[in-house]
Every structure is written in C-alpha cells, then in structure tokens.
Amino acid sequence: MHYSYQWQRGGSNVLAAEGSSYALTSADVGHQVTVVVTATNADGSGSATSPPTATVTAPPSSGGTGSPPPPITEPPITELPATPKFIGSIDTMKLSKDQAAGGFTAADGQAVDLAATTAATHITDNAPLEYPSVMVSWANRIHADGKSVWFRLNATGGGSLAHGDLGDGYPSFAAGYLTKLHQIMLANPGLFRSGDILDGDAEAENSSWWTNHYGCGVQGSCTPCDEGATNKPCAPVYQFNHFLVLMTEQENRDLATLGITRVDTTVHSTDPGTAQHQLYPSTVQAMGNKITVDAYPDQGTTDPTTAANAWINALNGWHQTWAAKGLDVKVLVGEWGYSNAISVSDSQQQAVIQAEVTQALPTVPFLVGTNYWVGPGSASSGGYTYIFRQESGVWKFRPAASDLSAFYAAMNA
Q1: Which of 14, 45, 150, 366 supports an S-S bond with 197, CB 3.0-4.6 Å?
Q2: For 23-77, what is each residue's pLDDT tens digit?
Q3: Are 128 and 100 a contacting pair, CB within 8 Å?
Q4: pLDDT digits (tens, 9 = 90+) for 273-319
Q5: Domain locations in the chain as residue ranges
Q6: Up-side HSE of residue 350: CA atoms within 13 Å toward CB?
Q7: Hey, which CATH number is domain 87-411, 3.20.20.80, 3.40.718.10, 3.40.190.10, 3.90.550.10?
C-alpha cells in the first residue's frame, strides 16, 4: 500500500505540503487544517479527508520563549474496499473513439445497453480528449446501465502534445496531455464514479510525440535519453516512465479534489514489448506491481488448442520476465480478442474464444482481468474480433459473446 498526502488550509491545497506531517505556520491562523490521504494498491486507489482541526487561533512561535506546536499527523486510513474479484471489460473503441466526431448516437446507446446485459464489470469509454461532451455521454450511459467505466483516453492530436515534459501537468500545467486531462476532470466532476478505471493515454509509448520531440521512439534503438534529454536524438524511456507515474499522481490529486474515491489510476496499457522491457521496476511498483498488456498472441491460428496455449505461454512469459527482475507482478490484459488478423466465421471465433476462456485464461493465477477488444465493430473497421454486429441498424451478439459473458460471470462467482 502506497500513501500520498495533500494538506489543505480552509479547503484549499497548501503549496508543497505533501508530507505525512505538517507544521503549522502563521498563514494557518483563522483557518481549519485537513489532510487528503490517497492510498494506492493493486486494487486501485482511494482518498479520504481527515476531520478538520480546530480553527488555528495563534501563530506558532518562531524563536524567543515557548516552542512551536507539534506537527499534525495524518489520521489512520483503512484498506480500500475490494474491486471486483476479476475485471471483465468490453471495449467500445470502434464507436466511442473512431466515431467520436459524430457525437453520441442512439445506436451508441443501444450498443452500451447490449454490453450491459453481459456479466462484464466494465465497459470502455475511449472518447478522445478533444471530445469531452462525447466522453461524458458515453460514461453517463455506462453508469446508468449499472456498469463501471474503463476510460481509455487518447488524444487525436497527441503527437503535438507534450507528455509530462516541457512543464505539462502538475504543478506547472503548461500545455500538454496531462494538463488537458486535468482540465477535463475538473470541468466534469460527475464523469467518474467509484469502481471506474482511468487508463490515461493507453499505449502512450506509441505516441508520435516521442519521436517528434526526442528524435527517437520509446522502443527505438537510440541511446536512452538522460534525465534532461541533453543527448538527443535519444530513446525517451526515462521520460515515458516519468509520464506514467506523474499521470497517476496527478489523477489522484484531481480525484481527491473532486471527492471521488476508488477510481483505479494504476492502469496504464502498453504493448508486450514495452511492458517487458521499457517499464522501470519503480514504475511497475507505483502501479501496484501490475502491468497492463494489450496483446493478440493467438491472431495467427484457427486451432482452438493452439490459441489457448499461445495465451498461456504469453502470460507466463510476461510474468517470468518480471520475476527475473525481482517482482511478482499481476497482469491485467488491456486488449485481447479473436481474431485480429484472420477473417473468421462465427463458429471459428466461438470455438477459439471458448477454448481460451475455459482452458487458458482461468488457469493463470496472476491474471486479474481482461478487456475484450472489441465489442461493437465490423470486418471493415479494423480486425475481426468484434462480438457485436449491426444488423438493420441494431447491434446484436455474435455467438462468442455468450462465452465471454459466461467467463466473466465465472471469474467473479
């Protein structure tokens, strides 16, 4: 369990007061003092605000006779309430992101309603930061249907947005991705609810910002950047890790300001290579010893057993990579689906998915959840994994949807 602190004077944050104790100053006279404690573990994060102190009536001594008052210490905080035993999510990217410019439509609402009839715990909202009203509409419908939201929030103009560098985000809030996210969160206090997942800038390592600004990508073969990136062109591995950690810390601050608890900010989806080789151990530890991986190890086969084994091998390989680094990680699958490469029939898709959700995924003890990519889609919208198809304007299940729902139900039984 990791704790962070923000001391407040009269309900407003005290600049640079982020330690576990706080010594009163003359500026506190006439005010009550509180502390917001944010706890983060593998299940997510949550915040609690202490009861206020009595109104400070006299400045502390600063020399001469007497002694300054003892520092205030934070109140005890209990463990976070449990999230679902297993995160079972359905992705809506082909609608909520790819068609965001068209707004939130009646057909979008019907797709959410259909997803909500399954045993999924979460449904994704992938609306880009440039479409906050669409983002809010998707989240509202998902919440109204009784499901939690997995926010996977990219920006269509991400290649021109700073990513935790150049003063982006807390505390300077210069222009960039984190600053834009901060603005949206504070402008839409009803957007998030307990149980949601905030996966800011999913697969951020693939943003063209890194190459545009550093002359090389996160996974590039260049020499890694030093902390100040004085050796450009360089691979911005340090800067990428800094971005992820800063994002979680900033999100926790903003959620605390909004009084919202139990939103998991420790989910940062990456591709398998990044998850194994570019993430720092300290970053993974800050994420609750959890990696979130988007992968399709089964995309080249139509044999159910081969597909199931491909998943077992992939999951064990990621886990073993981190075990060799001294960390016993949990794995959350940020994207999976069949098939991402082969146009398969309904029966082929169902046979493979059935094998994967009965013979492979349930057997992996460190697997904490999956997000099926994609729910609503089509063969012409990228990949063939979709489990909802549109017929005469109405979204309907493909047969494999029942197997996915049964898998999610069994994992949370």
Answers
A1: 150
A2: 787 777 888 888 888 766 655 666 777 777 878 876 444 333 444 445 555 444 4
A3: yes
A4: 999 999 999 999 999 999 999 999 999 999 999 999 999 999 999 99
A5: 2-73, 87-411
A6: 13
A7: 3.20.20.80
